[in-house]
Amino acid sequence: MKRSWIYSLLVLTILLSLGFASKRVLSGASRMTSQAQAAANSQTITIGGEPVITLTRPSPADKTKPQFLEAIVLPGRGMNLLQLKAWLPGKGEIDVIASPGLADAKQLLDNGDDEFGNRAFMLGSAILLPYPNRIRGTFSPDGKTIETTVAGKTLSLPANWKGKNPGAEKHAMHGLILSAKFEDVKYQDGPAESSASGIFHAGDFGGHWPSKTDVSVRTTLKNNALDIVVATKNVGSEPLPMAIGAHPYFAFPSGDRQQARLHLPCTLRAPANNYDDVFPIGQIVPVKGTPFDFTAPGGAPLGTLFLDDSFTGIQRNAGGNAVIEITDPAANYGLRILALSPEVKAVQVYAPPDKNFVAVEPQFNLVDPFNKKLWGKTDTGMVLLQPGQSVSWHIRLELFTPAAGAAH
Question: Domain count of the chain?
Fold first, then answer.
């Protein structure tokens, strides 16, 4: 009897520890809890060698209002957001982000990627730093790098991208953490919010960037909001140029891209040479009176307009926030993107007419920000951190119903 009682107590203790732990640590020396859970759950999926995190919220109590339900985060690939799910009245559960499912994403990222990790910004919502967007330079003979000047220093950057046209110029694209594995990863599902956080000791990004950087990311999911905060700190001894952005593909629930609308609080645009290279020409022009004017309350329909454009001249609300809105009238759906960091100076928008998404990318910088021949003395948005200094990028997503959503 005594042995039976002790055995039952031991089994109960194990079940409680596995099933009701509200906080988990996913990497580093404290990974024991997640490993025990993985052993007990054959459904556990890793991407980039690290367990995928799924943050969850309860089913909506009021099914007449939109609500976030789930966020999938990838600690093994830059703490990127793979998917965000929501409840939408009249449609039920929807994917806020146009992205493949978890199994397909694993195949693409773990087995179908290239040496640069470019797949990271082709799906979900990738975090981009220390330079979102394009940087040009002198192409190396081996075809792997470009040489360019960054904050007065000559550096070698991965030549990881080029246009599709014959002879398109290779260049550096979307930063240096596309394949980063984050450490000290923690996550929890609580009554008020669900969150995931981690840190990446980037150093000098493999010799590609000045000084040394620590990167921390925290993703917080609530019923009515998703917050992503990316903080970078100069932990080296030299000045550190820094810009931060993201690359989310936002889906239209109706599937009707032409009637979907975009509101951008941006009065200026930096035109590109063409939509294959998408290199800036060094000009900044007003959007008023052009097809690129999305400043009106409620925005303007996307129609058949192709977009791969850098917008600037951001107008902020009374709280100091830049407010972008995507609406899908046919689905009675609205998504609000708030750029809460004052360092966000530009928004890249990518929207092919034949795709059911719009990529809205709030970022610190204009494209090719160190190109003095193009920009001269123009402030291109790069932040220069002295040793010990930090800067953060903070974005919040909110759902709203267009009929009730007021212009901000």
Answer: 1
Residue 367 covered by a domain: yes
- Tell me the pTM: 0.88
Q: How far apart are CA 291 and CA 287, in angstroms?
A: 8
- pLDDT for 200-211, tens place per residue? 999 999 999 999
Contact 264, 347 (CB under 8 A): yes
Within-domain flag for 9: no
pLDDT digits (tens, 9 = 90+) for 167-205: 999 999 999 999 999 999 999 999 999 999 999 999 999
How many CB atoms neighbour CB 317 within 10 A? 12
Q: Is residue 8 part of a domain?
A: no
Residue pLDDT, tens place only, 217-250:
999 999 999 999 999 999 999 999 999 999 999 9
Query: Is 5 inside a domain boundary?
Result: no
Residues 6+ apart with CB under 8 A from 254: 260, 328, 330, 331, 333
> Which tokens belong to 239?
């000045």
Binned at pLDDT 50, 70 and 90, residue 143 comes out as confident
22-71 residue pLDDT tens: 344 444 333 333 333 433 333 589 999 999 999 999 999 999 999 999 99
Q: Are 217 and 229 in contact (CB under 8 A)?
A: yes
CA 368 to chain centre: 19
d(CA 8, CA 357): 53
The C-alpha atoms of residue 18 and residue 386 are separated, in whole angstroms, by 45
Helix (H, G, I), strand (E, B) or coil at 91: coil
Give kind and range of the element (H or E) at residue 372: helix 372-375
Residue 342 structural domain: 24-400
Q: The CATH number of the domain where 325 resides is what?
A: 2.70.98.10
Collect all residues with Cβ–Cβ distance below 8 Å to 295 and sequence separation of at least 6.
263, 264, 265, 266, 267, 287, 288, 315
Contact 323, 337 (CB under 8 A): yes
pLDDT at position 404:
53
Q: What are the backbone dihedrals phi and psi of residue 165, each rounded to the nearest 5 degrees, phi first?
A: -70, 150
Q: Burial-class residue 221 by CB neighbours within 10 Å (0-12, 13-18, 19+).
A: buried
